[in-house]
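Deliverable D4.2, example record:
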Amino acid sequence: MHYAAFAVLSLIVSVAFPVSGQTSVWTGASGDGLWLTANNWDTAGVPDGFGASAVVGAPRGTFLDGDVNLGSLTVTADGDLIFFSGFGLDLSVGPTRALQNAGAITLREGSRLGLAPTIENSGEIDVNTGTVGGALELRSDVELTGGGTIMLRGPGARVFAAGGPHQLGNINQTIHGGGQLGQNSITIFNGPNGLIQADRFEETLVVDPAAGVGGRAGLTNRGTLSASGSGRLELSGAGGGWIDNTGGVITGQSIGTVVFTDGIEVVGGTIGNNNAGLFSVAAGHEAAFRDVTFTSRISLTTRGNLGFGGGSTVRLLGDTTNNLGILNVSQAPEGETTRVLIHPDGHTLDGGGSSTYAATGPSSPPKRPAARPSLSGTSWSAAAAVSATTGSRSSTTEGFRAPKKARPWSSTPAPAG
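Output generated by the structure prediction step:
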């Protein structure tokens, strides 16, 4: 009798939980669609454990109804894996390809997918928001390949590392929507075929990288950072990370808005719009741009600071129609000042654009920089000085002053990412 009971128990365990190295294939035979129902898998049983692998395919509708660990996960083109709220799946940190997704993976609010080294996503991963948003959590450095998409659906949706900092390498994915990318916990590499885009209507995608090791960039962009469709892309330096944009593009299109905050510094590459995009340094914030080619207007909102570091070369290529130049400083309220900070040493402004300063700040004549920057083919409008003589508020153009939150500027270029 005891032997029979032991045999039955052994049979149950072998069906419910596969041994290390086995692969469980989804059948959905029970009809309830639940991951933890043994009859929904082939004879290998319910996959759970870092030695186990799972293949999720037809019939569509596989619901993760508990916390699970896996060595690897494959979702086929006809597969649809949906995380119930509050549950998580962690992938093993090892040398193998931990996730292959050709179908759809949906994280409901409060659920979590723990990513490990290599992710091949040719399908779509949806991270939903709510009171507690869904999350993609890096458990190690992670490389994203496959040409698929990752959608962040709202302010609570996030990509971060709990035990980082780790690096997220976006080789050829589209990471888009609105939510949190980085949260000061990961460094980011966006490859030549990578796209990070804020494109959800009136929602913000905050990209806030951690500081890179040894002064390196927190975000290295060789591809495209973009805002479109009334989306708002916020590039933040709150975590001390700066952006190496060499060979990359930061663009706004279809009335998308790109906002620079928290002392972020951008080095190299191109910043410009494509069909009605808008760029600004947020009110009360500072930003620095070194060796950047501007192809559109940059607007400074109330109390914003736009700083050019010493030794930089800024090419201004935008049009000057209606006296709106590349650098457009908006009017500040009484008692406030919007500043453009120019380093006096080795600074060059060239190209065909202009710098126009609107009447801003308290009523006082504008201050001259310690030394004029070198201007090559660039018009320099002193509209604010004229306004000051009529009693209007004036803009202030000062000698270089390092922002409190930005990486200290110097005549030495920032380290490569």
